[in-house]
Design brief:
single chain; 208 residues; alpha/beta; Rossmann fold; 5-stranded parallel sheet; 4-stranded antiparallel sheet; 9 strands; 26% helix; ATP-binding cassette domain-containing protein
Length: 208
């Protein structure tokens, strides 16, 4: 998966979130979009996902050199954000079964063991609404990282995680990052992007 940006910009009303962003993002590197709270880094991630339209410029998506229509990009990406809604009436096992019916599980993984992968096996039959914020975030991360997708987008991935959860995230993201376009949005917490070799500061694109 490759994303090419040509002078891409996004604004709300008269305020530009970023402008004149040109780059080519591919799986050879892992990327982090850095910025403080309210800086627009999450908006930038949504634009890259195709969830939010850019206000100017051109955004191109390719898989193995073949152009992908922007309206079809969502099929090839998985996304995690602490604000992403879960179906809280479902149990963990039901949530996993539903999610992976839409986006397949990585072929080396077994759906029957998903609860173990996210270290929530004791809660596999519990409705998600009874999960703590940290348990929900681990579930979101597991659904994104274990999906068989070409790209993975993580918005502030260690939000609400305790030290155990952070260490779990660090291990899993290292294990599953190979041959995938991986982009993180972070407010400069290094545990979130320790594996990223390309840093993009959203402030650099605000006043161009």
């Amino acid at each position: 998966m490759e994303i090419e940006l040509k002078n891409v910009g996004k604004r709300f009303n008269r305020d530009w979130i970023f402008r004149n962003w040109s780059a080519t993002l591919n799986p050879e590197s892992a990327y982090v979009v850095l910025g403080g709270n309210g800086s627009g880094k999450s908006t930038a991630l949504r634009v890259l996902l195709g969830y939010a339209p850019q206000s100017e410029g051109e955004l191109l998506f390719r898989i193995d050199g073949k152009k992908i229509d922007q309206n079809q990009v969502y099929k090839h990406f998985s996304f995690c954000s602490p604000y992403l809604e879960l179906y809280e009436e479902l149990t963990l096992d039901e949530m996993a079964k539903f999610h992976f019916s839409l986006k397949p599980l990585l072929p080396q993984m077994d759906l029957a063991h998903f609860a173990e992968y996210v270290h929530l096996e004791a809660s596999r039959n519990k409705p998600v609404k009874y999960f703590s914020s940290g348990m929900k975030q681990r579930l979101r991360l597991g659904l994104a990282l274990y999906s068989d997708t070409k790209g993975v987008f993580l918005d502030e991935p260690i939000s609400n995680l305790d030290r155990f959860g952070i260490d779990w995230y660090r291990n899993v993201v290292q294990e599953l990052r190979k041959d995938r376009l991986l982009i993180v949005a972070s407010n400069k917490q290094t545990d979130e992007y320790f594996f990223c070799d390309q840093k993009i500061n959203i402030e650099d694109f605000k006043h161009r």
